Amino acid sequence: MNGMLQDLRWAVRALAKSPGFTLAAVATLALGIGANTAIFSLVDGILLRPLEFREPERLVALWGRFRSPDLDTNPLSVPELEDLRRQAGGTLESITGFSPTSANLTGVDQPERIQAMVVTTNFFDVLGASPARGRTFAAEDDAGGIGTAAVITDGLWRRRFGGAPDVIGRNMRLDDDDFTVIGVMPRGFGQPGDTGPSPVEIWVPSNFRIPQLPFEQRSARFVAVIARLAPGVSRSQAQARLAGIADRVRLQNPDQYAPRAGWSLRLLPLFDQVVGNVRPALFVLLGAVGLVLLIGCANVANLSLARSAEREREIAVRAALGAGRLRVVRLLLTESLVLALLGGGLGVLLAVWGSDLLVSLTATNLPRVGEIGIDLRVLAFTLALTVLTGIAFGLIPALQMSRGDLQPALKDATRGATAGRARGRTRAFLVVAEIALALVLLVGAGLLLESFRRLLAVDPGFEPEGLLTAQVSLPVPNQPERGKYYSDEMQRTFYRQVLAELSASPGVRAAGLSSNLPLSGGSNLGAFRIEGRPVPPGEPPPLAEFRAVSPGYFRLMEIPVLAGRELDEKDRSDAPFVAVVNRALARRFWPGEDPVGRRIRIGPDGAVELTIVGVVGDVRQLRLESEPEPELYFPYEQAPSGTLTLVVRADRSPENLAPTMRAAVRAVEREQPVYNVLTMRQLLGRAVAPRRISMLLLNAFAVLALGLAAVGIYGVMAYGVAQRRREIGVRMALGAHRADVLRLVVGQGMALALAGVGVGLVAAFGLTRVLASLLYGVSRTDPRVFFGLSALLVAVALVACWLPARRASGLDPLAALRTE
Predict the structure, then answer these.
(1) How far apart are CA 185 and CA 189, in angstroms?
(2) Among 32, 97, 357, 515, which residue has the fewest nearby CB atoms (within 10 Å)?
(3) Among 358, 170, 395, 388, which Cα is nearest to 281's?
(4) Does 623 score more than 90 pLDDT?
(5) Measured between alpha carbons, how far is 571 from 604 in angstroms, rounded to an integer?
(6) In 248-273, which positions are buried (b, 16+ CB within 10 angstroms) versus exposed (e)?
(7) CB 588 within 8 Å of CB 528
(8) Rounded to an integer, what distance in angstroms lies between the CA atom of residue 541 and that of residue 527?
(9) Which one, of 220, 645, 695, lies nearest residue 467 by Cα?
C-alpha cells in the first residue's frame, strides 16, 4: 500500500510539472470517455436492460403473418385471439389483447386529446405489473363491451389531479363518458413498445364485443397480442406449436383464409418487439465513439512518447539507483492511470450533459427513453473504460521508456539522439493507426450524409411549403346513441362548418381534410375488387391504401391530376360513389390503359361500388424512402369519419395560423380539442428524424476524429523537427535550401498519412457493411465518398505536416548548431 501511495504522489508531481501535456491529455481523454459514456447510456437503457416486468424473458408478442412482406407483422382479429386462448393452453400460460386509441379528455379548463389503450382485463397480470396506487382490472370491469374503470399513468395523475392522494374513485370524462380511476401505475411505466410524442396515458378494459362494430369478423384485424410462455416452453417450441394452431384455424375456416395468402402466426420476444429496429444504429454509434476513443488513446500515447525524451535522464537515474524495469513500468502506468481518471471524471460531467441532450433529441424516435440516464451501471462502465484507457495509452510508452542503455541517457551531450529507432517506429505506427481509424469514421459519416442528402432530395409528391396541419377526433362514447357526433350526418356537418370557418379566416389561402396525411404515420390498408376481374380461388384480393379527403384536397396539396377530374362538391353522400386512384395503382392494374370510368368494389363481400373519376400523381405516404403504394382516395362526405386531419395553406408563415385553426374548431364545438398542430415541414422533419440524428452524431464523431488525427500528425512532425534541429542545421550549412527541408519534413509526414489512408480504405471497405441498413440511395462502397474523403484527410495531413516543416525550413543553421 505504501508503495502504491508513493507511486501516486510521484505521478501527481510529474504531471504537475508538465501542465501543458496534462491539460492536453485530460481534454482528449475527457472527450473520448464522455462521448462513450453518453452513447453507452443509450445502449444500456434501451438494449441491455431487461424489460421491467415479471420474468420478461417469458413475454412474447404474437402477430399474424401473410406471405406478403408488407404484412409480416399483422394484428389479429377477435376470433383469432379467442382461437389462441382455446387452443394454446399448454404453450402459452396467459394471453392479453390490446388496441391503441385516443380520447378527448373534457370537463376541464383545457380539453386535450390523450393516448389511450383498450385492453383485456388480464393485461397487467400477463405483464406482471402492479399499480403504485389502487388496483388493476378485474374480470367484471369489462362488462358490456368497454368498461368504465380506468388505470392511469403517474404523469396523468400529477397533471390532471395534481398528485392528489384521494385520486382512486374520482371520475374523469373521456369522449362524453365518465370513467372511474381505479389505479395509478408507477412512475416510468409505459405501454410495451410505446414510442412517439404522445405516449399512452390511460388504459380501459374491453372484451372487444361491441354490437355496432364488426369485431366478430376475422378480417377485422386490430388486436395486438402479448402472451406469457408456459413454464418450460422455449420460444422455438412455442413457434412450432403455434404453426399447428394456425393450420387448424385455416382448415376450420376455409372461407375466411385464402390458401395462397399463407396466413400463419409469428412469435417475437417482447423485448425485440419493444426495441424495434434501433439496434443497428445504436451499435454503429457505439462503435464510432469507440474509434474516437482509440484515436484519443493513440494521441495521448504519442504525447507521452514525445515527453519521454525529456525524461530519459530521470528514468535512467532511477534505474541506476536500483529501480527494476517492472518498477519503472509501474510508475509510468500509475501516471497514465491518474491522467485517465482525471479525464474520466471530466468525461462523466460531459456525459451527463450529453446524455440529456441525446434524450431530448431522440425522445420521439427511441423506445424506453425513460430508462436512459447516468446511473451506477453506466458509472461502472465508465470506470472500467477509464482504467482500460489508462492502460491502453500508457503501456506502450511505459515499455519503451523502461528499456534501453543507461549510459547514453546519463550524458547531457547525447540527449537529443536517444529517442531511438524503436520509439520512432512506435510513434509512426500510432500516427498511421490514428489516420486509418479517422478515415473509417469519415467514410461512415460521409455515407450517412450522402444518404440523408439523397433522401431530402426525394420528391414527396406534394408541395410541403406553407402547409399547417392539425388533428381533430370527435368523441365516440360507449353508448353511441347518446353521442353528439355519432351519426354520419353529424360528423359531416361538424367538418363542413369547421372548413367554412377556416376558409373565411384571414391568411388562409385554402383549407381541406384528410383521413391520413402523408408522412404522418397513419395507414389504412384495405382490399378492393375490380369489376370484371374476379379474384381467382385461393388468391388474396388486391390491396391499396384508403384515404378520405375533402373537395379541392389535391389542389390544396398541389398533387397533380393526371387524368379525369378531382373530387368536388358534387360528390356528396346522396351522389354515386366515386374514387380517385394514384398513378401507382393505375399502372399496376391498368397498365397502358385509362382507368377513368372503371368500377371497383370495396367493403365486406364487395358491397360498395365506386366509379373511378380521376388519376393523380404518386405521393410518398408512409416514408420518403419507400416507393409509392397503390392508393384510393374517397370523398370524405361518402366515407365520413370522426377522426380527420385539417390542412390549411397559408399566405405567409403557416405556424402563425395555429391559433386560427383552434379558434375555428372551438367556434363549432367549445370542448373539442385540437392536437398535433404541426407544419408539413415539421412532419417531414419527424419522418427523417431517426436518420438525421444518426447522421449528425456520426458526423460529429468523424469531425472530432479528424481533428485528433490532424493534431496527432502535427505533434509527431513538430517533435521530429525539434529532435532533428542539429541535423537540419548541418544540412542547411552544407547547402540545403528551404525547399529541400520542406520536402524532407513534409515527405516523411505524408508517407505516414498515405500509409494510414491505405490501411483506412481497406478497413472501411470491410466495416461499412454494418451501415447497409441505414443507407438510402447510396452504395456502402460509393467510390466518390471513399476517395473524396481520403483526399480531404490527405489535405488535412498535408497542412499538419507543412506547419512544422515551415518552421524547420526557417531555422538559422548557426543558431541550431550552437544550441547543440
Answers:
(1) 6
(2) 357
(3) 358
(4) no
(5) 22
(6) ebbeeeeeebbeebebbbbbebbbeb
(7) no
(8) 6
(9) 645
Ramachandran region of residue 367, left (φ > 0), alpha (ψ -120 to 50) or beta? beta
Give percent of the chain above pLDDT 70: 85
Longest Cα pair distance anywhere in the chain, in angstroms?
106
Q: Where does the pLDDT of residue 106 fall: very low under 50, low under 70, confident under 90, or very high at 90 and above?
A: confident
- Tens digits of residue pLDDT in 550-573: 999 999 999 999 999 999 999 998
Q: How far apart are CA 416 and CA 419, in angstroms?
A: 7
What does the alpha-carbon distance between residue 716 and residue 748 come to, in Å, rounded to a whole number? Answer: 10
Q: Which residues pair with 470 in a beta bridge?
A: 646
Q: What stretches of 558-679 show up as alpha helix (H) in DSSP?
A: 583-589, 658-668
CA pair distance 648, 389, nearest whole angstrom: 56
Rounded CA gap, 729 and 502, in Å?
Answer: 83
- What is the structure's pLDDT at 23? 87
380 CB neighbour count, 10 Å cutoff? 10
CB proximity list for 334: less than 8 A, separation 6 or greater? 4, 7, 8, 10, 11
Sign, CA torsion 473/474/477/479: negative
Residue with cell 394454446: 88
Output the nine-digit C-alpha cell for 380.
Answer: 461502472
Give me the count of residues in the chain: 820
As separate numbers, helices (DSSP H) first and strands (DSSP E) second, the chain gives: 21, 22
Long-range contacts of 156-161 (CB under 8 A, 24+ apart): 156/114, 156/201, 156/202, 157/133, 157/181, 157/184, 160/105, 160/108
- Residue 279 has phi, psi (to 5 degrees) of -55, -50
First to last CA, the chain: 44
The bridge status of strand 221-229 relative to strand 92-106 is antiparallel
Checking DSSP bridges between strand 675-679 and strand 508-514, what pairing results, if any? unpaired
Name residue, grid cell 399474424: 64
Query: Cα 703 from chain centroid?
Result: 21
Report the b/e string of 721-743 with b at 16+ CB within 10 A: bebbbeebbebbeeebeeeebbe
Euclidean distance between CA atoms 227 and 371, whole angstroms = 23
Q: What does 760-801 look like in DSSP terms, one character per residue?
A: HHHHHHHHGGGGGGG-SSS-TT-HHHHHHHHHHHHHHHHHHH
Beta strands in 418-551 (DSSP E): 467-473, 508-514, 525-530, 543-549
Sorted by sequence, the CB contacts under 8 Å of residue 484 that are 6+ apart come out as 176, 475, 490
**Phi, psi (rounded to 5 degrees) for 286:** -65, -40
| β-bridge mates for residue 221, sequence order | 77
What does each C-alpha distance from 451 to 47, 442, 483, 774 come to in angstroms?
A: 26, 14, 49, 8
Contact 240, 88 (CB under 8 A): no
Backbone angles phi, psi at 112, to 5 degrees: -145, 160
Rounded distance between C-alpha atoms, residue 44 and residue 380, angstroms? 12
